[in-house]
Amino acid sequence: MTYPTATSEHLVCLGLNYRTTPVEVRERVAFPEAKVPDAVQEIRQLPGFEESVVLSTCNRVEMYATHSLEDAQRAHDTLVAYLVQRFELPEEQAEALVTYRLRSDEAARHLFRVVSGLDSMVLGETEIFGQVKQAYKVALETGGTGRSLNKLFQQAFTVGKKVRNDTTIQRGSTSVGSVAVDLAEKVHDLKRCRVMLVGAGEMSRTCAQSLLSRGAQSIIVSNRSYDRAVELATEMKGTAMKFDEWENALHEVDVIISSTSAPHFVIKPDLIQQVMRKRRWDPLLIIDIAVPRDVDPAVNEIEGVYLYDIDALQAIADEGRRERERQLSACERIIEEHLEKYGYTHPATISHHGTQTAT
After folding, report:
1. pTM of the entire predicted model
2. Yes or no: domain 5-169+327-358 corresponds to CATH 3.40.1400.10
3. Catalytic choice (58, 193, 207, 331)
């Protein structure tokens, strides 16, 4: 089975992501989930367009389409104009809109890399596979796809599964936040997990977001500045606690993330001994991401306590990142084999001049 040559030549992708576009612009052109079906149909109704799939996540907005226009540049220009009009971008934002413009082989290759987690902020992340699958499902149910995009996306999912099964690119944590989640999952059922932030630094915010995104039940924030605690707790849909009260609530949580600017230990063995007695020695995970450290290392010797400082977390993350990077060539080989097998074999290049363009 091969794709007709016309399919390859008339396939385009227009996109922007975390590399090309700051979040304040990405959020202006992000399609709300409920509006994606409308966007699929609007693109199909553009002059010369036939099929379309719209992928919109926090890190990227991409439009895949087939067309019958004279050249890919005209198709890309039409899609850019659609974005500007659809989101009513002011002139200065429209002029600053940086997109990547891909066609033919390069568009297919890009989709295969996206589905495989090779184009993600965290190399090898798995969430994007489901997001692409959902985007395709919406387009399919809306009537936005036909023979060309159906085959392309089905092959993309085949590639993504092969990358996942035949390599270790998606194994091992590559960020402090993801390490925190992995550790918490080994100790607790995240759906019942309660988290306390002692201090409200950016790293503790990242760890907490990772835990909450994977099902942590609730979060308590305590900070010397109570207003700052309220602000972060509101963002996390949690509860703020005054700084002189947090010790009294430790026995109620399962994960403690500490990131104060104190010059001395704020969490000591005597305190945690009392906490563990109240918890009846139910496991407690403590993540100390403060420098200087907030937690006395002796705390780790207490039964049921699992203590990790920033160096330990970073070492785990670095090893996961190195292992994933070692797998990159194997992943790229799988993608190239599928491109050749299914008809996308013409070389493509990328040039940069305000927009990223595949020619």
Report:
1. 0.65
2. no
3. 58
